Amino acid sequence: MIRLASLAAAAAFGFLGLADAPAEAVEIQEVTSPGGIKALLVEDHTNPLIAMRFSFAGAGATQDAPGKEGTANLLSGLLDEGAGEIPSAAFQEKLDDLGVSLAYSAGYDDFSGSFRAITDFETEAFDLLRLSLNAPRFDEEPVNRIRGQIETGIRADSQDPGERLGEAWRETIFPDHPYSRPVEGTIPSLESVTAEDLRGFAKSKFTRGNLVVGVVGAIDAQTLGQRLDEVFGGLAEAPDLAPVADVVPATGKRVDVDAETPQASIQLALPGLPRDHPDYFAAYLVNQILGGGSFTSRLYQEIRERRGLAYGAGSSLASFDHAALLSASTTTRADKAEEVVALMRDELKRMAEEGPTEAELAAAKSYVKGAYAVRNLDSSLAVASTLVTIQLDDLGTDYIDRREAEIDAVTIEDARRVAKTLLSPEPTVITVGPAGA
After folding, report:
1. What number does CATH give the domain 254-387+394-433?
2. Phi/psi of residue 276, each to 5°?
3. Record's superkingdom (predicted)?
């Protein structure tokens, strides 16, 4: 049993009735069901609610069969569209009548579910969750309807500059890799996906062996263990996952996509650091200073505040299962695109050569420590998601307690060394806008 010692974290649990409780009252319990299924639990009985997040590691869109891209995403829209003996409309009606929130989503690496229920209907709610995972129906009407909705979105996005930027970006930095494919698939690939494909994907990828669970709310460890076996105990023991190669984002490339738009969208990409790298927090702080979302970041100040060339500019650090990435992006007037690309390059070069200042590093540390509770612990499902992330990234159940110390341990020498390593390579640059602007 691990305690959440951070006062900020404890305050963030106000939705659980713990805002005025001492920090040591909030505990993460490690639960193992009688059948051996593991979960992390934050137990609180102030409100009669149970929230659960779960993920099947490695079972995302990278597992879509060639020519059937979009399978995982289509599946995510169908698991609440009828199960067992209950057809789609009746299943949705039962969810509404019981006050159950149930949703699924597919990313590149993982397939996730979120579930929230009132304790008055706990048994019935968990049974619907069980059915959705163990006995999905995939009837013709909902399959065609959800497929049609996704295809409509694909057609609409085909002319969207942001979507075209994303497509060019993926195909350029991850060529011939599953990360280069759209999660939603294409219209031809979706048309090839059958109910048997969906059923086979669920059966082979959703298993006890790659299951990660986080739970928050009015349920004790013993009861949760029983529910875990009821819901997930019927799944196969281990997944059948296709191997996915590690990939380093391509550098030094330039791709310009012609689009008749009044603005140009710009994205720069460089290799990042994986989440388990010992310098990860140094990289995280460098990114925060460069463009990590605050109004004081270098990219924002240079492009927005000093020159008024964009409404915003920023950067992000992303860690996937098989790649790590640092990217920077903005949108500007089409005739200013090359000027803004040059400014972005200059800021990356300056950070690589000089690194951050002591004042910038101190401000970044303060911000990222304070923002964590707001971003990750502000609702029951957010806390449950954090419990899942801790397990997926193998951070350890004491991560929330030790996180601030790990951030504080980053020295200015660390930050400058990592900035030079991360930002010295030539970035890949992708633009979408009018040709010759």
Report:
1. 3.30.830.10
2. -90, 5
3. Bacteria
